[in-house]
Amino acid sequence: MASCRGLILAGGLSTRMGTDKAQLYRNQQTMLEYSQSLLQSLGLDVLISGGGKGLRDIVHQAGPLGGIYTVINQHQLEGDALLILPVDMPLLTPQVLQQLVDVGEASCSAVCYQGCYLPLYLPVNTVLVDYLKKVFPSEALGASAMPRSINKMLAAVGVTQLHIADDQVLSNANTPEEWRTIKSLIVPEGGEHSDVE
Known about the structure:
Layout (H helix, E strand, L loop, with lengths): L3 E6 L15 E2 L2 E2 H11 L4 E4 L13 H13 L5 E6 L7 H14 L2 E4 L2 E8 L2 H10 L14 H8 L1 E4 L13 H8 L14
Parallel strand pairs: 1-4, 1-5, 6-8
Antiparallel strand pairs: 2-3, 5-7, 6-7
């Protein structure tokens, strides 16, 4: 069975939020710390793409796909798998992530939830690696015309989409308004409401 590692995508510019989403506080943890704790609770080693603590993208400003490409390229992960999540999903639970891993390991295929391509279980196989090489060709070959889209990647490699009973857990916060709305749904630790916006 392929080994699985967790990957947090933390390299976004956070333009709409106006501040680094990875450093927003969810109860007593930053979102980066919370995301790490989710993956560690499943027993996974954690890799980080972008942000102050993560790998710097090989291809500048190439979006989430660029982060995935960088991690696969620098860690030689072919034959393994990644459980990928963005740093801006405060309502994610270990159970939601574990289901992706269970189905992905059983089917040896990419797995996400319907209508939401992240979080994502992604086997790092030859089909994926070849696709990424076409999207991010070497400098000698020049730029690729292929779109740098996770959806396009999943269409190329094949994906299983799972139903989720409560899609609220897949909410991500891109603006201060969304952050306040989602934060109001978080159960405070110890019964105290966090006052950090």
